[in-house]
Amino acid sequence: MNNIGSINLETERLLLRRGTINDALEIYENYGSDPLVSKYVVWNKHVDINDAINLMKKWQESYNELTSYKWLVVEKESQKVIGSITAVKVDSANKTVALGYCFGSKWWNKGFATECLKRVIKFFFEQVHVETIYANHLTANIASGKVMKNAGMIYEGTLRNRMIDKNTNQMMGLDTYSITRQDYFS
Question: Which of 1, 15, 145, 160 lies in the 20 to 30 Å Cα band around 26?
Answer without folding.
Answer: 145
